[in-house]
Amino acid sequence: MFGLKSMKGRLIGVVAMVLVLFFCCPNTRATDPGTRKSYEDQEKRSCIKAVDGYAYLSDKMTLSEIRSAAFADAKRKALEMAKAYIASKTKMANFSVQYDVVWSESEGSVSVLEQKDYGIEDNARYHVWIKAEVEYSLAPKGKARYEDIRQENAPLTVKVWTSKKVYKEGENVKIYLQGNRDFYARVVDITSSGEIIQLLPNDIRKKSRFEGGKVYCIPGEGDLFDLRVTPPYGKDRIVVYACERPLGRVRTKPIGKGLRVYQGNERILGAQTRGITVTPHSEDYQSGVEFYETTCTVRTVPR
Does 179 lie in the same domain as 120? Predict the structure, then answer.
């Protein structure tokens, strides 16, 4: 645990660094600490679309079946439009040679984040609306290079890493963050005891927008805390939620030194973070947003 042990009525174990401040690392790959040592442990790519679905009335179907058909139509459109959107965003001439974009063709791969049921319109068809998340993955081909997905015109990619994977008691952990283009992000530490501490944005570094290509450090410029390893030991997961547009709002509680704690579970946090405004025009294949979620796991041990 990174000095985040709960203490009733006090700061959640965060050690203040009032005099010593860490500054953002320079925008250079040659001196990025740990860049080649530990990338993310998991990643989840997706496209969020807002679409309308329709099903025409039929004497051969019940109203419930027609409604289900309208939602199925919306999910099918979401999948098709997500494919077109990601293709339009991937402009690197060499990218398709190096990577395959892999989609699940199953309707079940489309997660409905929000929905509206408009019912029967014009006595002819059933109308529904959904905001859907469609997941996809990148499969490297041949001698694909990591640098290919770090280019500005590749799909949104945000890397999070630490200089090593195992830290001993008393050591300070530094987290590094870099995106291939401008992005909005929320960075949280899910501690070994299950607490969810929001590291960025915080009450000191309030901006949630980050510049593409620049390496950010946590703790960084202006932060009043460090991330020092304390008991209980175990695994901390650094989770980054990133998107092309501002993320959905979540309720957090201040715990001092600029940090905040999220008082819910990880599943709800992920759902609320995806509360992004998406253009609601079903025929606009250019509307939508890319969403990227990545995790870096760090293990803490006694000295």
Answer: no
Task: Give the confidence band of 42 by pLDDT, cuts at 50, 70, 90.
Answer: confident
The secondary element (H helix, E strand) that includes residue 70 is: helix 63-89
Residues 116 and 193 in one domain: no
Identify whether the C-beta of residue 155 lies closer than 8 Å to the C-beta of residue 132.
no
Question: Which residues form the domain of 125?
Answer: 45-140
3-state SS string for 221-256: CCCCECCECCCCCEEEEEEEEEECCCCCCCCEEEEE
**pLDDT tens-place string over residues 147-165:** 667 788 889 999 999 989 9
Give 242's strand partners: 185, 292
Binning pLDDT at 50, 70 and 90, where does residue 87 land?
A: confident
How far apart CA 199 and CA 185 sit, in angstroms, is 11
**Is 119 contained in some domain?**
yes
